[in-house]
């Protein structure tokens, strides 16, 4: 049989192959179908078929090659503006490293005490106690270093969002033309899915913590811009007229009238920016951003529900603590019950004790 058909497969080989196939399917009943489906799914969008144009199905072929245009444009930008993006990356990298080193250099118990005192000063004794409890839980479950990394990422992102967003919102409040130009840009930034930001950021900045801060800034900056604009525009006209009647110039009007009255609204924007930054932590971990988000991503990839739960609980605890702190920053003297910030909290307690002595 072999001499008449040199290409034939021996019967034993065929039976062995069949048996091995059956054994493989028995050991992994989902393997073959899943791999085939995954391969066809991943390659489905790249199949080019030439079909004649028909009015019955006019969109069978691509009419506008937007994908090719975007790829060409991004390649041109990367090739010609690499020094510009490196210049943008430098201050973010320096700030992130400084904040990260500062947070990780402090002993854990001292950091817990400092955050508790800060929360007590900003939001009251009850929030301070729960902050200490929450940070102690983060350390007890083995997520302290990741929590400090996430906290440094979020703090750096919020700082740059405030530096960019508050002046932009002031400019929009002073110019209706600037507001009309920025409004569709902000709408686009807020409606674009978060995953879409990852591809251009990786192309322009690479991967790591610094690109993660960049994508978080882009994703989280619109609320502080919008609410700064809204807060300044909602300042009562009679107060502005009173300031003008006393001879206030534009600088005095901004810093002594408009910004103090708009501060609750501006801090609401900072609060929303902070929450968006924390929500971006898990998504940004897909481009090698460390911290609690990477714990969640690894837990999902390994089907390790315990690891993912630890990372998720850590993000929730940080979100609650930072949310309560930033909410209190937007309160005025009437809501706080005191005229000055140093009359409450640990600072107020120290001042009272020194006066008694």
UniProtKB/TrEMBL annotation:
One of its GO terms (molecular function) is amine transmembrane transporter activity. One of its GO terms (biological process) is choline transport. Pfam families: BPD_transp_1. It is a multi-pass membrane protein. InterPro entries: MetI-like, MetI-like_sf. CDD domains: TM_PBP2. It comes from the Bacteria. Residues 1-25 have a biased composition (Polar residues). The chain crosses the membrane at residues 101-120, 127-144, 150-173, 194-221, 274-296, 303-322. Residues 147-326 form the ABC transmembrane type-1 domain. Signal peptide: none annotated. SUPFAM superfamilies: MetI-like. GO terms for cellular component: ATP-binding cassette (ABC) transporter complex. Keywords: Cell membrane, Membrane, Transmembrane, Transmembrane helix, Transport. It is found in: Cell membrane. Residues 1-30 are annotated as: Disordered. Belongs to the binding-protein-dependent transport system permease family. This is ABC-type proline/glycine betaine transport system, permease component. The lineage of its organism: Bacteria, Pseudomonadati, Pseudomonadota, Gammaproteobacteria, Oceanospirillales.
């Amino acid at each position: 049989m072999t001499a008449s058909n040199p290409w034939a497969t021996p019967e034993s080989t065929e039976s062995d192959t069949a048996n091995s196939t059956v054994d493989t399917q028995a050991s992994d009943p989902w393997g073959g179908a899943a791999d085939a489906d995954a391969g066809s799914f991943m390659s489905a969008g790249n199949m080019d078929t030439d079909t004649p144009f028909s009015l019955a199905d006019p969109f069978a072929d691509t009419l506008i090659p937007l994908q090719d245009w975007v790829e060409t444009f991004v390649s041109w930008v990367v090739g010609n503006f690499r020094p510009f993006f490196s210049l943008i990356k430098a201050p973010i990298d320096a700030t992130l490293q400084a904040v990260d080193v500062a947070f990780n250099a402090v002993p854990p118990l001292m950091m817990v005490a400092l955050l508790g005192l800060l929360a007590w000063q900003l939001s009251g004794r009850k929030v301070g106690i729960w902050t200490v409890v929450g940070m102690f839980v983060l350390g007890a479950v083995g997520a302290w270093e990741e929590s400090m990394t996430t906290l440094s990422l979020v703090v750096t992102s919020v700082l740059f969002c405030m530096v960019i967003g508050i002046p932009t919102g002031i400019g929009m409040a002073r110019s209706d033309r600037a507001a009309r130009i920025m409004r569709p840009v902000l709408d686009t930034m807020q409606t674009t899915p978060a995953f879409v930001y990852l591809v251009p950021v990786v192309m322009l900045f690479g991967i790591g913590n610094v690109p993660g801060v960049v994508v978080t800034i882009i994703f989280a900056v619109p609320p502080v811009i919008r609410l700064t604009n809204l807060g300044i525009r909602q300042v009562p006209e009679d107060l502005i007229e009173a300031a003008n009647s006393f001879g206030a110039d534009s600088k005095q009007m901004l810093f002594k009238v408009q910004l103090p009255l708009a501060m609750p609204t501006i801090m609401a924007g900072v609060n929303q920016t902070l929450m968006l930054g924390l929500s971006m932590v898990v998504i940004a971990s897909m481009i090698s951003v460390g911290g609690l988000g990477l714990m969640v991503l690894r837990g999902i990839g390994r089907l390790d529900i315990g690891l993912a739960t630890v990372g998720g609980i850590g993000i929730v605890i940080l979100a609650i603590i930072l949310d309560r702190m930033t909410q209190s920053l937007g309160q005025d003297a009437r809501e706080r019950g005191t005229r000055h910030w140093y009359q409450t909290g640990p600072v107020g307690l120290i001042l009272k004790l020194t006066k008694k002595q």
